[in-house]
Amino acid sequence: VGIDISPAMLDVALDREVEGDLVLGDMGHGMPFRAGTFDGCISISALQWLCNADKKSHSPPKRLFTFFTTLYSSLARGSRAVFQLYPENSEQLELITTQAMKAGFSGGMVVDYPNSSKAKKLVPDSSWGFYFDTFCHSWVPLIFFD
Ligand SMILES: C[S@@+](CC[C@H](N)C(=O)[O-])C[C@H]1O[C@@H](n2cnc3c(N)ncnc32)[C@H](O)[C@@H]1O
Q1: Considering just the CA atoms, what is the radius of gyration of the chain in Å?
Q2: Which of 4, 119, 125, 132 can pair with 105 through a Cys bridge, CB separation 3.0 to 4.6 Å?
Q3: Strand segments (E) across 1-146
Q4: Is the minimum distance from the CB of 129 to ligand 1 under 6 angstroms?
Q5: pTM confidence score
Q6: Cβ(13) to ligand 1 under 6 A?
Q7: Nearest alpha-carbon partner for 133 in 49, 75, 94
Q8: If 0-12 CB within 10 Å is exposed, 13-18 middle and 19+ buried, where does residue 125 land?
Q9: Residue 130 and residue 69: Cα distance in Å, rounded?
Q10: CB of 133 closer than 6 A to ligand 1?
Q11: Could you tell me the CATH superfamily of domain 27-133?
Q12: Distance, CA 113 to ligand 1 centroid (Å)?
């Protein structure tokens, strides 16, 4: 099952005849799935958008918390969630990880090209990925997304 806020992006998925169902939805409103439905979650270049307040009513901490709590409950015990994202700064990463931990996730963060001074400085185009393990509460091998 895939979810995106943009009908145009879902149309691209339909054009490419992806397997599975597609849901039009805002991650910040929460994941509209029954508890324990999934064994895993993968998100590419989307999570950082929850750090923006696009409307007056938007509170990034609340939206992130809603997203993570509902995602957590939709995952079966022992599931993993992997996110690749492009944070604007270290405050965004801190906010994301804090809200994820509050929602029950544990895990860690990895950066691709760890020896790159660009990535270390957290410039906008550095690519970060992190995973949370809902069951083992431990670190897993590095997972990179480009
Ligand atoms: C850079 S694109 C990545 C799309 C896709 N994951 C991929 O790898 O091709 C970011 C996507 O995040 C979606 N997005 C942004 N804010 C969102 C939100 N609040 N809820 C759900 N999707 C969102 C955008 O519509 C866009 O399709």
Answers
A1: 15
A2: 132
A3: 2-4, 22-24, 38-44, 75-85, 107-111, 128-133
A4: no
A5: 0.84
A6: no
A7: 75
A8: exposed
A9: 17
A10: no
A11: Vaccinia Virus protein VP39 (3.40.50.150)
A12: 24
